[in-house]
Amino acid sequence: MEKIIVRGGRQLSGTVRVEGAKNAVLPVIAASILASKGKSHIYDVPALADVYTINQVLRTLNTDVTYDGKGHIEVDAEKELAIEAPFEYVRKMRASFLVMGPLLARVGHARIALPGGCAIGSRPIDQHLKGFEAMGAKVEIGNGFIEAKVDDRLHGNKIYMDFPSVGATENIMMAATTALGTTIIENAAEEPEIVCLANYLNAMGAKVRGAGTGTIRIDGVDELVGAEHTIIPDRIEAGTFMVAAAISRGNVLVENVLTEHLRPLIAKMSEMGVIIIEEDNGVRVIGPEKLKAVDIKTMPHPGFPTDMQSQMMALMLNAEGTSVVTETVFENRFMHVEEFRRMNGNIKIEGRAAIINGPMKLQGAEVASTDLRAGAALVLTGLVADGYTRVTELKHIDRGYVNFADKLRALGADIERVNEEEKVEIENLEAPAPLKLDPNFAS
Ligand SMILES: CC(=O)N[C@H]1[C@@H](OP(=O)(O)OP(=O)(O)OC[C@H]2O[C@@H](n3ccc(=O)[nH]c3=O)[C@H](O)[C@@H]2O)O[C@H](CO)[C@@H](O)[C@@H]1O
Ligand SMILES: C=C(OP(=O)(O)O)C(=O)O
Protein backbone atom coordinates (compact mmCIF):
# COMPACT_ATOMS: atom_id res chain seq x y z
CA MET A 1 0.00 0.00 0.00
CA GLU A 2 1.31 3.45 -0.85
CA LYS A 3 1.62 6.11 1.82
CA ILE A 4 2.80 9.66 2.13
CA ILE A 5 5.09 9.95 5.13
CA VAL A 6 5.73 13.43 6.43
CA ARG A 7 7.74 14.60 9.39
CA GLY A 8 6.64 17.89 10.90
CA GLY A 9 8.76 20.89 11.69
CA ARG A 10 10.15 22.27 8.44
CA GLN A 11 9.34 25.83 7.34
CA LEU A 12 8.47 25.83 3.63
CA SER A 13 10.07 28.27 1.23
CA GLY A 14 10.52 28.73 -2.51
CA THR A 15 8.14 28.68 -5.45
CA VAL A 16 5.45 26.23 -6.51
CA ARG A 17 3.56 26.28 -9.81
CA VAL A 18 -0.15 25.51 -9.85
CA GLU A 19 -1.61 23.20 -12.54
CA GLY A 20 -4.69 23.67 -14.68
CA ALA A 21 -7.90 23.22 -12.69
CA LYS A 22 -9.33 19.73 -12.28
CA ASN A 23 -12.85 21.06 -11.96
CA ALA A 24 -12.48 23.11 -15.15
CA VAL A 25 -10.78 20.52 -17.32
CA LEU A 26 -13.29 17.72 -16.68
CA PRO A 27 -16.34 19.56 -18.08
CA VAL A 28 -14.22 20.97 -20.93
CA ILE A 29 -13.11 17.48 -21.99
CA ALA A 30 -16.73 16.29 -21.71
CA ALA A 31 -17.82 19.25 -23.88
CA SER A 32 -15.30 18.38 -26.58
CA ILE A 33 -17.63 15.66 -27.90
CA LEU A 34 -20.01 18.41 -28.99
CA ALA A 35 -17.71 19.10 -31.96
CA SER A 36 -19.05 17.14 -34.91
CA LYS A 37 -16.30 18.68 -37.06
CA GLY A 38 -12.65 19.50 -36.39
CA LYS A 39 -10.32 18.65 -33.55
CA SER A 40 -10.10 20.35 -30.17
CA HIS A 41 -6.79 21.18 -28.55
CA ILE A 42 -6.91 21.69 -24.80
CA TYR A 43 -3.90 23.11 -22.95
CA ASP A 44 -2.73 23.20 -19.32
CA VAL A 45 -4.34 19.83 -18.68
CA PRO A 46 -3.14 18.42 -15.33
CA ALA A 47 -1.95 14.78 -15.25
CA LEU A 48 -4.56 13.68 -12.71
CA ALA A 49 -6.28 10.33 -12.26
CA ASP A 50 -9.61 12.07 -13.01
CA VAL A 51 -8.30 13.30 -16.37
CA TYR A 52 -7.33 9.74 -17.34
CA THR A 53 -10.81 8.60 -16.31
CA ILE A 54 -12.70 11.19 -18.38
CA ASN A 55 -10.43 10.39 -21.35
CA GLN A 56 -11.45 6.74 -20.99
CA VAL A 57 -15.11 7.73 -20.89
CA LEU A 58 -14.67 9.63 -24.15
CA ARG A 59 -12.95 6.67 -25.79
CA THR A 60 -15.87 4.46 -24.75
CA LEU A 61 -18.07 6.95 -26.60
CA ASN A 62 -16.05 6.36 -29.79
CA THR A 63 -13.99 9.53 -29.58
CA ASP A 64 -10.24 9.71 -30.30
CA VAL A 65 -8.38 11.29 -27.39
CA THR A 66 -4.63 11.82 -27.35
CA TYR A 67 -3.04 13.07 -24.15
CA ASP A 68 0.68 13.70 -23.94
CA GLY A 69 0.64 13.68 -20.11
CA LYS A 70 2.32 17.10 -20.20
CA GLY A 71 -0.58 19.46 -20.60
CA HIS A 72 -1.98 18.93 -24.11
CA ILE A 73 -5.02 16.92 -25.11
CA GLU A 74 -6.28 16.53 -28.66
CA VAL A 75 -9.85 15.34 -29.12
CA ASP A 76 -11.37 14.17 -32.38
CA ALA A 77 -15.10 13.49 -31.96
CA GLU A 78 -16.06 13.48 -35.65
CA LYS A 79 -17.12 9.81 -35.76
CA GLU A 80 -20.61 8.73 -34.80
CA LEU A 81 -20.77 8.69 -31.00
CA ALA A 82 -21.73 5.74 -28.83
CA ILE A 83 -24.18 6.66 -26.09
CA GLU A 84 -23.29 4.62 -23.01
CA ALA A 85 -20.96 5.51 -20.13
CA PRO A 86 -20.50 2.41 -17.96
CA PHE A 87 -20.46 2.17 -14.16
CA GLU A 88 -16.78 1.24 -14.25
CA TYR A 89 -15.93 4.91 -14.94
CA VAL A 90 -18.84 6.71 -13.31
CA ARG A 91 -18.13 5.00 -9.96
CA LYS A 92 -14.52 6.20 -10.09
CA MET A 93 -15.48 9.76 -10.85
CA ARG A 94 -18.89 11.38 -10.63
CA ALA A 95 -17.93 14.04 -13.18
CA SER A 96 -18.30 11.28 -15.83
CA PHE A 97 -21.98 12.20 -15.69
CA LEU A 98 -21.08 15.45 -17.45
CA VAL A 99 -21.17 13.67 -20.83
CA MET A 100 -24.95 13.41 -20.60
CA GLY A 101 -25.64 17.01 -21.67
CA PRO A 102 -23.27 16.88 -24.66
CA LEU A 103 -24.63 13.47 -25.75
CA LEU A 104 -28.21 14.73 -25.65
CA ALA A 105 -27.21 17.78 -27.67
CA ARG A 106 -25.29 15.85 -30.27
CA VAL A 107 -27.06 12.46 -30.51
CA GLY A 108 -30.34 12.99 -28.64
CA HIS A 109 -29.73 9.85 -26.60
CA ALA A 110 -27.56 8.96 -23.59
CA ARG A 111 -27.29 6.08 -21.17
CA ILE A 112 -25.11 6.76 -18.16
CA ALA A 113 -24.59 4.61 -15.07
CA LEU A 114 -26.17 6.13 -11.95
CA PRO A 115 -23.43 7.92 -10.01
CA GLY A 116 -24.64 6.90 -6.52
CA GLY A 117 -23.48 8.49 -3.27
CA CYS A 118 -19.93 9.11 -2.08
CA ALA A 119 -18.02 9.91 1.09
CA ILE A 120 -18.94 13.60 1.24
CA GLY A 121 -22.67 13.18 0.67
CA SER A 122 -25.46 11.57 -1.34
CA ARG A 123 -24.98 14.02 -4.23
CA PRO A 124 -28.24 13.59 -6.17
CA ILE A 125 -28.51 14.61 -9.84
CA ASP A 126 -32.13 15.76 -9.80
CA GLN A 127 -31.22 19.30 -10.94
CA HIS A 128 -29.42 17.96 -14.02
CA LEU A 129 -32.42 15.79 -14.92
CA LYS A 130 -34.92 18.56 -14.25
CA GLY A 131 -33.05 20.70 -16.77
CA PHE A 132 -32.93 18.00 -19.46
CA GLU A 133 -36.63 17.27 -19.01
CA ALA A 134 -37.50 20.96 -19.29
CA MET A 135 -35.70 20.89 -22.65
CA GLY A 136 -37.80 18.00 -23.90
CA ALA A 137 -35.79 14.91 -22.92
CA LYS A 138 -37.57 11.84 -21.58
CA VAL A 139 -35.64 10.42 -18.66
CA GLU A 140 -35.89 6.87 -17.33
CA ILE A 141 -33.99 5.27 -14.48
CA GLY A 142 -33.56 1.48 -14.33
CA ASN A 143 -31.00 -1.28 -13.95
CA GLY A 144 -28.50 1.14 -12.48
CA PHE A 145 -28.61 3.46 -15.50
CA ILE A 146 -30.16 6.77 -16.38
CA GLU A 147 -31.36 6.87 -19.95
CA ALA A 148 -32.44 10.09 -21.60
CA LYS A 149 -33.86 10.48 -25.09
CA VAL A 150 -35.05 13.34 -27.24
CA ASP A 151 -37.53 12.81 -30.09
CA ASP A 152 -35.93 15.28 -32.44
CA ARG A 153 -33.82 18.03 -30.91
CA LEU A 154 -33.71 19.61 -27.46
CA HIS A 155 -35.58 22.89 -27.23
CA GLY A 156 -34.63 25.91 -25.18
CA ASN A 157 -36.50 26.73 -21.98
CA LYS A 158 -36.24 28.75 -18.78
CA ILE A 159 -34.74 26.58 -16.04
CA TYR A 160 -34.63 27.65 -12.42
CA MET A 161 -32.14 25.70 -10.33
CA ASP A 162 -33.24 24.95 -6.76
CA PHE A 163 -29.59 25.19 -5.71
CA PRO A 164 -26.76 26.68 -7.81
CA SER A 165 -25.27 23.26 -8.62
CA VAL A 166 -21.96 23.47 -10.48
CA GLY A 167 -22.39 20.17 -12.35
CA ALA A 168 -26.04 20.77 -13.26
CA THR A 169 -25.27 24.27 -14.57
CA GLU A 170 -22.48 22.81 -16.73
CA ASN A 171 -24.53 19.87 -18.00
CA ILE A 172 -27.54 22.03 -18.90
CA MET A 173 -25.33 24.70 -20.48
CA MET A 174 -23.69 22.08 -22.72
CA ALA A 175 -27.04 20.49 -23.63
CA ALA A 176 -28.45 23.90 -24.56
CA THR A 177 -25.69 24.84 -27.00
CA THR A 178 -27.42 23.20 -29.98
CA ALA A 179 -31.01 23.30 -28.71
CA LEU A 180 -33.71 24.98 -30.76
CA GLY A 181 -34.19 28.48 -29.37
CA THR A 182 -32.95 30.05 -26.17
CA THR A 183 -32.27 28.50 -22.78
CA ILE A 184 -32.05 30.64 -19.68
CA ILE A 185 -30.58 29.11 -16.52
CA GLU A 186 -31.62 31.01 -13.41
CA ASN A 187 -29.91 30.64 -10.03
CA ALA A 188 -26.99 29.24 -12.01
CA ALA A 189 -23.69 28.42 -10.32
CA GLU A 190 -21.16 31.27 -10.68
CA GLU A 191 -17.89 29.36 -10.18
CA PRO A 192 -14.86 30.34 -12.32
CA GLU A 193 -14.95 26.83 -13.82
CA ILE A 194 -18.35 27.64 -15.36
CA VAL A 195 -16.79 30.65 -17.08
CA CYS A 196 -13.90 28.51 -18.34
CA LEU A 197 -16.38 26.06 -19.86
CA ALA A 198 -18.48 28.83 -21.42
CA ASN A 199 -15.36 30.32 -23.04
CA TYR A 200 -14.53 26.96 -24.60
CA LEU A 201 -18.11 26.45 -25.81
CA ASN A 202 -18.11 29.92 -27.37
CA ALA A 203 -14.78 29.19 -29.07
CA MET A 204 -16.54 26.13 -30.57
CA GLY A 205 -19.26 28.37 -31.99
CA ALA A 206 -21.81 28.34 -29.15
CA LYS A 207 -23.62 31.46 -27.96
CA VAL A 208 -23.37 31.47 -24.18
CA ARG A 209 -23.77 34.77 -22.31
CA GLY A 210 -23.75 35.59 -18.60
CA ALA A 211 -21.53 32.74 -17.36
CA GLY A 212 -20.12 33.78 -13.99
CA THR A 213 -23.42 35.41 -12.99
CA GLY A 214 -26.61 33.84 -11.64
CA THR A 215 -28.34 34.02 -15.03
CA ILE A 216 -26.91 32.29 -18.09
CA ARG A 217 -28.46 32.66 -21.53
CA ILE A 218 -27.69 30.18 -24.29
CA ASP A 219 -28.93 30.78 -27.83
CA GLY A 220 -28.89 27.43 -29.61
CA VAL A 221 -26.80 27.03 -32.80
CA ASP A 222 -26.86 24.22 -35.36
CA GLU A 223 -23.39 22.82 -34.93
CA LEU A 224 -20.21 23.15 -32.89
CA VAL A 225 -16.67 22.64 -34.18
CA GLY A 226 -13.36 21.77 -32.49
CA ALA A 227 -11.49 24.67 -30.88
CA GLU A 228 -8.38 25.56 -28.91
CA HIS A 229 -8.72 26.29 -25.22
CA THR A 230 -6.47 26.80 -22.18
CA ILE A 231 -7.64 25.66 -18.75
CA ILE A 232 -7.69 28.17 -15.88
CA PRO A 233 -5.33 27.63 -12.92
CA ASP A 234 -6.57 25.40 -10.13
CA ARG A 235 -7.74 27.71 -7.32
CA ILE A 236 -8.05 24.76 -4.92
CA GLU A 237 -4.54 23.47 -5.54
CA ALA A 238 -3.34 27.08 -5.15
CA GLY A 239 -5.26 27.39 -1.88
CA THR A 240 -3.82 24.12 -0.61
CA PHE A 241 -0.25 25.37 -1.14
CA MET A 242 -1.17 28.73 0.42
CA VAL A 243 -2.23 26.85 3.54
CA ALA A 244 0.98 24.76 3.38
CA ALA A 245 3.02 27.98 3.47
CA ALA A 246 0.96 29.47 6.30
CA ILE A 247 0.78 26.38 8.50
CA SER A 248 4.56 25.86 8.35
CA ARG A 249 5.25 29.54 9.11
CA GLY A 250 6.97 29.55 5.75
CA ASN A 251 7.39 31.98 2.86
CA VAL A 252 6.19 30.60 -0.48
CA LEU A 253 5.40 32.09 -3.88
CA VAL A 254 2.44 30.25 -5.41
CA GLU A 255 2.68 30.80 -9.17
CA ASN A 256 0.08 30.59 -11.93
CA VAL A 257 -2.89 31.80 -9.91
CA LEU A 258 -5.75 34.13 -10.69
CA THR A 259 -6.15 36.09 -7.46
CA GLU A 260 -9.72 37.10 -8.35
CA HIS A 261 -10.60 33.41 -7.95
CA LEU A 262 -9.01 33.30 -4.50
CA ARG A 263 -10.80 36.26 -2.85
CA PRO A 264 -12.70 34.32 -0.14
CA LEU A 265 -9.58 32.39 0.81
CA ILE A 266 -7.30 35.45 0.80
CA ALA A 267 -9.84 37.28 3.01
CA LYS A 268 -10.07 34.49 5.58
CA MET A 269 -6.36 33.69 5.68
CA SER A 270 -5.58 37.39 6.10
CA GLU A 271 -8.03 37.51 9.03
CA MET A 272 -5.98 34.71 10.58
CA GLY A 273 -2.90 36.92 10.39
CA VAL A 274 -1.31 35.32 7.32
CA ILE A 275 0.58 37.80 5.15
CA ILE A 276 -0.54 37.55 1.54
CA ILE A 277 1.16 39.64 -1.12
CA GLU A 278 -0.16 39.68 -4.66
CA GLU A 279 2.81 39.71 -7.03
CA ASP A 280 2.92 39.86 -10.84
CA ASN A 281 3.46 36.16 -11.26
CA GLY A 282 1.55 34.82 -8.29
CA VAL A 283 0.73 35.21 -4.65
CA ARG A 284 3.34 35.21 -1.88
CA VAL A 285 2.20 33.69 1.39
CA ILE A 286 4.07 34.25 4.65
CA GLY A 287 2.95 32.38 7.75
CA PRO A 288 2.91 34.41 10.99
CA GLU A 289 4.34 33.23 14.31
CA LYS A 290 0.81 33.13 15.74
CA LEU A 291 -2.37 32.39 13.81
CA LYS A 292 -5.71 33.85 14.92
CA ALA A 293 -8.96 31.85 15.09
CA VAL A 294 -11.57 32.60 12.44
CA ASP A 295 -15.03 31.33 11.40
CA ILE A 296 -15.87 30.08 7.92
CA LYS A 297 -19.09 28.98 6.28
CA THR A 298 -18.88 27.12 2.97
CA MET A 299 -21.11 28.52 0.23
CA PRO A 300 -21.45 28.47 -3.54
CA HIS A 301 -19.05 30.88 -5.29
CA PRO A 302 -18.21 33.65 -4.46
CA GLY A 303 -18.66 32.25 -0.94
CA PHE A 304 -15.99 30.20 0.78
CA PRO A 305 -15.34 27.02 -1.27
CA THR A 306 -16.21 23.70 0.33
CA ASP A 307 -13.17 22.22 -1.45
CA MET A 308 -10.92 24.31 0.86
CA GLN A 309 -12.82 23.49 4.07
CA SER A 310 -10.66 20.64 5.36
CA GLN A 311 -7.37 22.41 4.53
CA MET A 312 -8.57 25.50 6.42
CA MET A 313 -9.50 23.28 9.35
CA ALA A 314 -5.90 22.05 9.40
CA LEU A 315 -4.80 25.68 9.72
CA MET A 316 -7.35 26.38 12.46
CA LEU A 317 -5.99 23.54 14.60
CA ASN A 318 -2.91 25.76 14.90
CA ALA A 319 -4.71 29.05 15.55
CA GLU A 320 -5.25 30.68 18.94
CA GLY A 321 -8.87 30.77 20.03
CA THR A 322 -12.14 29.22 18.89
CA SER A 323 -12.78 28.71 15.17
CA VAL A 324 -16.11 27.51 13.79
CA VAL A 325 -16.47 25.81 10.40
CA THR A 326 -19.99 25.51 9.02
CA GLU A 327 -20.37 23.21 6.02
CA THR A 328 -23.50 24.10 4.04
CA VAL A 329 -22.75 22.57 0.62
CA PHE A 330 -22.30 18.85 1.40
CA GLU A 331 -24.11 17.08 4.23
CA ASN A 332 -21.24 14.76 5.18
CA ARG A 333 -18.00 16.63 4.60
CA PHE A 334 -16.49 16.26 8.07
CA MET A 335 -15.00 12.79 7.60
CA HIS A 336 -11.51 14.22 8.12
CA VAL A 337 -12.40 15.24 11.68
CA GLU A 338 -12.02 11.65 12.92
CA GLU A 339 -8.59 11.51 11.30
CA PHE A 340 -7.55 14.88 12.78
CA ARG A 341 -8.54 13.48 16.18
CA ARG A 342 -6.04 10.67 15.67
CA MET A 343 -3.44 13.44 15.44
CA ASN A 344 -4.62 14.93 18.75
CA GLY A 345 -6.91 17.42 17.02
CA ASN A 346 -9.60 18.51 19.46
CA ILE A 347 -12.70 19.21 17.36
CA LYS A 348 -16.35 19.13 18.40
CA ILE A 349 -19.07 18.54 15.82
CA GLU A 350 -22.49 20.10 16.34
CA GLY A 351 -24.75 19.40 13.38
CA ARG A 352 -23.21 21.13 10.37
CA ALA A 353 -20.64 22.99 12.46
CA ALA A 354 -17.20 21.95 13.66
CA ILE A 355 -15.78 23.82 16.65
CA ILE A 356 -12.04 23.99 17.04
CA ASN A 357 -10.37 25.28 20.18
CA GLY A 358 -6.79 25.91 19.21
CA PRO A 359 -3.92 25.80 19.21
CA MET A 360 -3.27 22.16 19.98
CA LYS A 361 -0.16 20.06 20.15
CA LEU A 362 -0.54 17.91 17.05
CA GLN A 363 1.04 14.49 16.93
CA GLY A 364 2.00 12.36 13.96
CA ALA A 365 -0.17 9.27 13.42
CA GLU A 366 -1.30 6.87 10.70
CA VAL A 367 -4.36 8.47 9.08
CA ALA A 368 -6.47 7.78 6.00
CA SER A 369 -7.61 10.17 3.26
CA THR A 370 -11.39 10.05 3.23
CA ASP A 371 -11.72 12.24 0.13
CA LEU A 372 -9.19 14.12 -1.95
CA ARG A 373 -9.22 17.39 -0.01
CA ALA A 374 -9.25 15.56 3.34
CA GLY A 375 -6.15 13.68 2.21
CA ALA A 376 -4.40 16.94 1.36
CA ALA A 377 -5.46 18.44 4.71
CA LEU A 378 -3.94 15.51 6.61
CA VAL A 379 -0.64 15.97 4.79
CA LEU A 380 -0.74 19.69 5.65
CA THR A 381 -1.32 18.84 9.31
CA GLY A 382 1.60 16.43 9.15
CA LEU A 383 3.84 19.37 8.17
CA VAL A 384 3.52 20.74 11.71
CA ALA A 385 2.71 17.65 13.78
CA ASP A 386 5.27 16.19 16.15
CA GLY A 387 7.00 13.19 14.55
CA TYR A 388 5.84 11.18 11.57
CA THR A 389 2.42 11.24 9.93
CA ARG A 390 1.56 8.44 7.53
CA VAL A 391 -1.29 9.22 5.16
CA THR A 392 -2.93 6.28 3.35
CA GLU A 393 -5.64 5.98 0.65
CA LEU A 394 -3.61 8.11 -1.75
CA LYS A 395 -5.95 7.29 -4.65
CA HIS A 396 -8.08 10.19 -3.42
CA ILE A 397 -5.18 12.65 -3.40
CA ASP A 398 -4.19 11.51 -6.92
CA ARG A 399 -7.63 12.50 -8.19
CA GLY A 400 -6.90 16.16 -7.51
CA TYR A 401 -3.17 16.79 -7.01
CA VAL A 402 -0.27 16.21 -9.40
CA ASN A 403 2.92 15.09 -7.58
CA PHE A 404 1.68 16.50 -4.27
CA ALA A 405 4.48 15.08 -2.11
CA ASP A 406 7.17 16.03 -4.65
CA LYS A 407 5.96 19.62 -4.82
CA LEU A 408 5.98 19.92 -1.01
CA ARG A 409 9.43 18.35 -0.82
CA ALA A 410 10.72 20.88 -3.36
CA LEU A 411 9.54 23.56 -0.90
CA GLY A 412 11.60 21.97 1.87
CA ALA A 413 9.12 19.58 3.50
CA ASP A 414 10.47 16.34 4.95
CA ILE A 415 8.10 14.15 2.98
CA GLU A 416 8.18 10.97 0.93
CA ARG A 417 5.75 8.79 -0.96
CA VAL A 418 6.53 5.14 -0.35
CA ASN A 419 5.24 1.63 -0.75
CA GLU A 420 4.54 0.07 2.63
CA GLU A 421 6.47 -3.01 1.58
CA GLU A 422 9.58 -0.90 0.96
CA LYS A 423 11.72 -0.47 4.05
CA VAL A 424 12.39 3.23 3.83
CA GLU A 425 15.12 4.93 5.76
CA ILE A 426 13.10 7.91 6.93
CA GLU A 427 16.11 9.97 7.92
CA ASN A 428 17.54 9.62 4.46
CA LEU A 429 14.65 10.02 2.08
CA GLU A 430 15.24 9.17 -1.56
CA ALA A 431 13.50 9.96 -4.83
CA PRO A 432 9.72 9.36 -4.69
CA ALA A 433 8.00 6.36 -6.19
CA PRO A 434 6.48 7.29 -9.56
CA LEU A 435 2.76 8.12 -9.55
CA LYS A 436 0.77 4.90 -9.91
CA LEU A 437 -2.85 5.35 -10.81
CA ASP A 438 -5.13 2.70 -9.33
CA PRO A 439 -7.64 1.84 -12.06
CA ASN A 440 -10.08 0.23 -9.64
CA PHE A 441 -10.93 2.72 -6.98
CA ALA A 442 -14.27 4.43 -6.35
CA SER A 443 -14.48 8.18 -5.64
C1 LIG B 1 -15.92 18.04 -10.76
C2 LIG B 1 -16.36 19.22 -9.99
O1 LIG B 1 -16.47 20.31 -10.52
N1 LIG B 1 -16.61 19.04 -8.69
C3 LIG B 1 -17.01 20.15 -7.87
C4 LIG B 1 -18.48 20.42 -8.06
O2 LIG B 1 -19.15 19.21 -7.72
P1 LIG B 1 -20.70 19.04 -8.13
O3 LIG B 1 -20.91 19.66 -9.44
O4 LIG B 1 -21.03 17.61 -7.95
O5 LIG B 1 -21.36 19.89 -6.98
P2 LIG B 1 -22.78 20.59 -6.99
O6 LIG B 1 -22.60 22.06 -7.01
O7 LIG B 1 -23.63 19.98 -8.03
O8 LIG B 1 -23.34 20.13 -5.58
C5 LIG B 1 -23.58 21.05 -4.53
C6 LIG B 1 -24.73 20.54 -3.68
O9 LIG B 1 -25.90 20.44 -4.47
C7 LIG B 1 -26.47 19.17 -4.34
N2 LIG B 1 -27.09 18.79 -5.63
C8 LIG B 1 -26.35 18.87 -6.78
C9 LIG B 1 -26.92 18.50 -7.98
C10 LIG B 1 -28.23 18.06 -8.01
O10 LIG B 1 -28.79 17.73 -9.06
N3 LIG B 1 -28.95 18.01 -6.85
C11 LIG B 1 -28.40 18.37 -5.65
O11 LIG B 1 -29.06 18.30 -4.61
C12 LIG B 1 -25.28 18.27 -3.99
O12 LIG B 1 -25.69 17.07 -3.36
C13 LIG B 1 -24.49 19.17 -3.08
O13 LIG B 1 -24.99 19.11 -1.77
O14 LIG B 1 -18.89 21.48 -7.21
C14 LIG B 1 -18.72 21.20 -5.81
C15 LIG B 1 -19.28 22.39 -5.03
O15 LIG B 1 -18.51 23.52 -5.24
C16 LIG B 1 -17.24 20.95 -5.52
O16 LIG B 1 -17.11 20.54 -4.18
C17 LIG B 1 -16.69 19.85 -6.42
O17 LIG B 1 -15.29 19.80 -6.28
C1 LIG C 1 -15.29 17.06 -4.27
C2 LIG C 1 -14.39 17.26 -5.21
O1 LIG C 1 -14.42 16.75 -6.46
P1 LIG C 1 -15.51 15.79 -7.14
O2 LIG C 1 -16.74 16.60 -7.35
O3 LIG C 1 -14.86 15.46 -8.43
O4 LIG C 1 -15.72 14.63 -6.21
C3 LIG C 1 -13.22 18.14 -5.00
O5 LIG C 1 -12.55 18.48 -5.99
O6 LIG C 1 -12.91 18.47 -3.84
Give a written overview of the molecule:
The structure is a single chain. 29% of the residues lie in helices and 26% in strands. The two termini are 18 Å apart. Strands 20, 21, 22, 23 and 24 form a five-stranded mixed β-sheet that branches. It has a four-stranded mixed β-sheet with strand order 25-26-1-27, covered by helices on one side. The chain has a four-stranded mixed β-sheet with strand order 2-17-19-18. It folds into two domains: 2-19 and 233-428, UDP-n-acetylglucosamine1-carboxyvinyl-transferase, Chain; 22-230, Alpha-beta prism (UDP-n-acetylglucosamine1-carboxyvinyl-transferase, Chain), CATH 3.65.10.10. By secondary structure, it is α/β, with parallel strands linked by helices. The protein is built from 14 helices and 27 strands. Phosphoenolpyruvate is lined by residues 23, 94-95, 307, 372-373, 400, 443.
Give the topology, please.
Blueprint: E1 2-7, E2 13-17, H1 22-31, E3 35-37, E4 39-43, H2 49-60, E5 64-67, E6 73-76, E7 84-85, H3 87-90, H4 100-106, E8 109-113, H5 126-134, E9 138-142, E10 145-149, E11 158-160, H6 166-176, E12 182-186, H7 192-203, E13 207-209, E14 215-219, E15 224-225, E16 228-230, H8 235-247, E17 251-255, H9 263-271, E18 275-279, E19 282-286, E20 291-292, E21 296-297, H10 309-316, E22 319-326, H11 335-342, E23 347-350, E24 353-358, E25 366-368, H12 372-382, E26 388-392, H13 394-400, H14 404-410, E27 414-419
Parallel strand pairs: 2-17, 3-15, 4-16, 7-8, 11-12, 20-22, 21-22, 25-26
Antiparallel strand pairs: 1-26, 1-27, 4-6, 5-6, 8-10, 9-10, 12-14, 13-14, 17-19, 18-19, 22-24, 23-24
Helix pairs in contact: 1-2, 1-7, 4-6, 5-6, 6-7, 8-10, 8-12, 10-12, 11-12, 12-13
